[in-house]
Amino acid sequence: MQGPIALTGSTGFVGRHLVKMLEDAGYSLRLLVRKGPRDCGFGTAETIIGGLDDEAALRRLVAGAQAVIHLAGAIAAPDRATFFAVNAQGTERLAQAALAAGVERFIHVSSLAAREPQLSDYAASKRQAEDTLLALPPQGLLIVRPPVVYGPGDRATLPLLGQLTRRFAVIPAAAQARFSLLYAEDLAKFLMARLDDRTTGLREIDDGKANGYGWSDLTKSAAEAEGREPRLVFLPRWLLQGLSWPVSLLGAGLKLRVPLTPGKVRELYHRDWVAHGDAGLAGAVSFDEGFRLTIAWYREQGWLPVKTGADRRRAPKSYGESMK
After folding, report:
1. Is residue 133 part of a domain?
2. pLDDT on residue 77
3. Is 281 within 8 Å of 186 (Cβ atoms)?
4. What is the largest CA-CA distance in the chain?
5. Residue 165 in this model has a pLDDT that exceeds 80
6. Looking at the 3D structure of the chain, how many domains does it have?
7. β-strands 141-145, 201-204: how paired?
8. Mean of pLDDT over the chain
9. Which residues pair with 33 in a beta bridge?
10. In contact, 162 and 292? CB cutoff 8 Å
């Protein structure tokens, strides 16, 4: 293969899965990171120190690369301007650098939230990034919209999956919502496979569950794995909406990335997060299996308490080793 794969977001949850998979497959990697190599732990991969606002670092990242996979982005920010600076303007800088360097493949990992830009600053910034790429466009452009991605190593879905292991699960969402899911390793496999084909355009993807999941589906999976079905308690939207305003104002005033904002509440209570089109990935891990593996990994790492009479089935050792 000619040239390395240039990757942003390698220190994130999905990025760590993807880096390990690419290295195991023999790809040469060049990673954009904010900290030095000693803090990254990515074996033989070349590291470029910098961010999406550093044009010199971006030029070094893409020089001679055979492909770019863009995973980096802000999922929380103190204000709208920061979301757009990272997710939209940062993506545009990277795409411009790739175009100037003649990179022949550009894979942008967006979000299903981009389908609903009116809901939040995050969603709007992801949509603008997509629109910018489609207007340029870089060579061999593929935009991927994954749904909620979960799996070993993920702290974002830990609170929700942890709730499903309890007798009473407190859910900050609409009871009638339906949504798609995707196991992290399946997203990494999909991205790696796209390096060797010419799939272009915009694609929403999921684990192949027709019409997505409802909350009753998740409780059944939890019952299968845990031996009891949790009783769901749905938080009223007005409660989180009321809490989100002071939290958001505090975050903006102190320049902090806060997890609860009015936009985030609108995302949480949106009722249709099901991937559209021919979205299902062949052979993807079902939530039944993905939940079991993820919860086992959380317990092995001490992120969740060990179950009484613990389930002895273990997450694959490579997950624990690669995420430590």
Report:
1. yes
2. 92
3. yes
4. 59
5. yes
6. 1
7. parallel
8. 92
9. 49
10. no
Q: Taking the CA atoms of the chain, what radius of gyration do you get in angstroms?
A: 20
Q: Which two tokens stand for residue 240?
A: 């989180």
CATH, residue 54: 3.40.50.720
* Band of residue 322 on the pLDDT scale cut at 50, 70, 90: very low
Q: Which residue has the tokens 């939230």?
A: 113
Any domain includes 312: no
pLDDT value of position 36: 62
Measured in residues, the chain has a length of: 324
- pLDDT bin (cut points 50, 70, 90) of residue 320 is very low
Q: Which residues form the domain of 102?
A: 5-149+182-204
Q: Give residue-wise pLDDT tens across range 65-81.
A: 999 999 999 999 999 99
User: Each residue of 261-278: b (16+ CB within 10 Å) or e?
Assistant: bbbbbbbbbbeebbbeee
Q: Is residue 215 part of a domain?
A: no
Q: What is the 3-state secondary structure (H, E, C) of the chain?
A: CCCCEEEECCCCHHHHHHHHHHHHCCCCEEEEECCCHHHCCCCCCEEEECCCCCHHHHHHHHCCCCEEEECCCCCCCCCHHHHHHHHHHHHHHHHHHHHHHCCCCEEEECCHHHHCCCCCHHHHHHHHHHHHHHHCCCCCEEEEECCEEECCCCCCCHHHHHHCCCCEEEECCCCCCEECEEEHHHHHHHHHHHHHCCCCEEEECECCCCCCECHHHHHHHHHHHHCCCCEEEECCHHHHHHHHHHHHHHHHHHCCCCCCCHHHHHHHCCCEECCCCCCECCCCCCHHHHHHHHHHHHHHCCCCCCCCCCCCCCCCHHHHHHHC
Percentage of the chain modeled with pLDDT above 90: 84
Cα–Cα nearest to 261, from 179, 160, 172: 172
Q: Residue 263 falls within a domain, yes or no?
A: no
pLDDT digits (tens, 9 = 90+) for 219-274: 999 999 999 999 999 999 999 999 989 988 888 888 888 888 999 999 999 999 99
The pLDDT value given to residue 316: 53
